[in-house]
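step: validate -> pass
step: tokenize input -> pass
step: predict -> running
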Amino acid sequence: MAGYKKNMAQYENLEGWEKLSLGMQLDKWAIRYGNRIAVTDSEEEITYSELNQKAIGTGQYFMEKGIQKGDKVLVQLPNRISFVVVLFALAKIGAVPIMMLPAHRETELEGIIALAKPSAYIVAERYLGFYYVEMAMAMQKKFPCIQNVFVDGTQRGAWYEAETERQGVFPEVDSYSTAVLLLSGGTTGVPKLIPRTHTDYMYNARMSAKRCQLDESSVYLAALPVAHNFPLCCPGLLGTFDIGGKVVLAPTTSPDDILTAITEEKVTITALVPAMVTVCMEMLEYDEDYDISSLKILQVGGAMLEDSLADKIIEDDELGRLLIRVNSRARSLVFRTKSDAVYVSVPPGTTLKEVKQAIENLRGKLLVSRQKIARPLIDLNYKIDAEHFKLSLVSGEKDQFLANSRLGVMEIVCPPHADFTDEKLQSWLHKVIEESLRRNAKSILPSRLAFLSKQCGLPYSSVKINSSQGRWGSCSARKAINLSYYLVLLPSHLIDYVLLHELCHTREMNHSERFWALLNQFTEGKALTLRGELRKYRTEI
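step: predict -> pass
step: emit ->
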């Protein structure tokens, strides 16, 4: 180890090199970013402060159960918040997680256990229909080195929910010691272990984030298994945390989950393999409900991305983003201007040169159409007068903005000489108003959803309020319901329509005749009428 430290010394003057363990990094982020959302999955979201507290509580629990500094621990968890908690809990102890993938089975496990001799195994109870506990028990029986098996499922409350009861006294962790053991691809047999230290791994993440120009507004989608190096550190989860952004954990690598997450969470960066890019692009060609306009960076690894796929997104200095979709039924190029992008539908065989020429020919008309649908300026004349949310801006005497907010009402007091044409001010005003919408939505929507669920006999597993500008709501196969906070801008009867719509999806996942019959049952036969009325409203301010 001494020689290793000596070799590390040559890097210590590099930009971004910081001699802190990952556990200490989380302490720093919790202080710096506090109540900002750190990570969200299909069931919950937590702030930086909450993540740190859960990591402290979980780490202390693991120590009480025998996990010590330097121990190796098998971690086999899917993309959920508990994975992130476990990662940092082990980092605080100085234990080393071995990053197993959900797809690994006995063959991979036996080879890794025989080599690394882990003292504990942290595993999901069930994921995608596979029951992991039986496999974990078999591994513990075969390998005496595994002293404890921790199950992320029915028993996880003991370690995941008890953060307030533990203060978290941890051993000192050398930042040049091993932080994680990654796995090789295993193409030549059992996967090999790849050690990364706390400091060098964080340096990798930090400089990747800088190269990708991430900032606190960045939203990173971990679509690939987050135990992979790519979504964990390039810049991945760690790089996003370092700049105070938000990480979204996709529950699976299905294109529907990926595109839904991008649409609802306004994802700005994600990493995929080429095959998944192809499938997602094909889905976008026939499903217009998805909105990927927020996506600024798409990282592709594992193989080369075909030029034909990369060319389907054009960034234009004047027009912004143009999304090109091949439509087998199209006979000519069709341009549709929306608030988020210009959508171009082209017949099969259309070349990129032909598309760019058509853009130049129509540039004047496209610019006019973009201007017509631009977001209105938020100034002293801007008002919202909805049933559940009212907003007004008034001129004050002080040289600073003051936001007064209570349930259903918000007033922004503005300096007498405020320049409302300033882009940074407009961005700040949007952010302040949207946060107020989120708070109001969290006060109104979950309780109303629970009432309608009980009344209609349509149970759901969880509810989450998000910032989706593409959909009013959605329902996953696990009956997890997501609701856009823009719902509070609707009248009550349309809010109920959206909530009932998603509740009906807990029984009928598609828009079949059975679905509409069920929804009609709970809307007095007015489902289609209410849908038509809803289309007059927009998920934006």
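step: describe -> The CA atoms of residues 319 and 416 lie 34 Å apart.
step: cleanup -> pass
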